[in-house]
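Appendix C reproduces, verbatim, an entry submitted by the partner laboratory led by Prof. M.T., so that reviewers can inspect both the input and the predicted structure.
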Amino acid sequence: MKPAFLLIAAALAAAAFTTLAAESAPQPAAAAPAAVKPDLNAGGTKFGATCAACHGADGNSGVPANPKLAQQHPEYIVKELQDFKSGKRPNPIMQPMAAGLSDADIRNIAFWAGSQKAKPGFAKDKELVMLGEKIYRGGIMEKQVPACAGCHGPNGAGILAQYPRLSGQHADYTAAQLLNFQNGTRKNSPQMADIAGKLSDREVKAVADYIAGLR
C-alpha cells in the first residue's frame, strides 16, 4: 500500500505543479487593434471645405506663402496638424483650423493630400542656385551644417514618417519656415532649429530656392 500511496501523492504533486506553472507563465499579449483605414472620400471632402482655399483644390497651393501638401507623407501632415491643434506649433491661422478637426478628420485629410500628385516647382535665382545645391547636397562643413539630402533625400522626396517631402515646395514658404526655426517662432523640431540657426539669410534663400526646383 505504501508504494501505491507514494505514487498517487507524486502524481497529484506533479499535476499541481503543472497547473501552477501554467498559471504563472507569461500570457501572450493581446493583439494590437488594427489601424483604422483612412477614408479618402471623406478626406477629400473635408480638405475641399477646410483646406483648399489656402492649399489648392488638389493640394498644390498656388500661393507662395502657403505650402504644397500634395504628395506629402501623410504621417508628417498628421504630426503637424496635431502640433497646430495642441499649440506646439503656434500659428494664428492654422491653430483655429486644426482645432475644429477630429483625429479621424486629420488622418483622412492627411492621407487624401498624400495621395494627390505634386506639381513641380522651379528655382528662380540663378545667382544663388549653385550655393543652394552645395548646401543641400553637401552641407556647410565649417558651420557643422549637415547636408539636407541626408534626411530629405537627394531629390527631396523625404523619408516616410520621419522627414517631410521638400521637392518642389515654394521657396517663400521654405525660407519662412527656416527663419521661423531660426528665430524660435517654430519650436516643434529641435533638430531643424539647430540647423537653421547656423544659416545666414543668403544661405536660407539659396537652399530654399534650390529646393523649389528639386524633382
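The chain has two domains: 40-114, 129-212. Additional entries are available on request from the coordinating office.
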